[in-house]
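Example 3.2
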Amino acid sequence: MATRRFKSATMKFGVPLSVPGSRYVERCYGKHGKAYAHTPPRHSDLELVLVNESRQLWYTPGRYEDGHAYLADAVSKDSGWRILGWRMADGSMPLGEYDEIDPELAQIDYLPAPNPPRSPGPSVMCHPPGSLYGPPLPEVMNAAQLITGDSTAAAAS
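Structure, written as tokens:
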């Protein structure tokens, strides 16, 4: 059964988040799914799932402060990356089960951009070695690389 997006005045209605024939499905709280009407707890460390026009995915540490401000010092607001969804860094699931999202079906123009940290000085993304984020992931992978597990092309580009 296809998961549906929550309604918004600025996006197409009835477009599924994923379909049974989707080649790759990302499991997270989708910005056009459960995370459309709900936010993480304030001052939460997150893993942001970002997507661009080429449907490449990027997993980056982030932080939710308040007021729909998803902070990430890895990208700028004008970088072309948009927030497909998020997961809690500690593995908790405050909104229940994750949405299943096909990046190929994402309505990029209607997804929010991550915000840079608000204040100068030390980054809000500082985490000690061995933190909840685990080993670094390749910076960018497209859906085909995620399906095949071949991250060498992503690391080379």
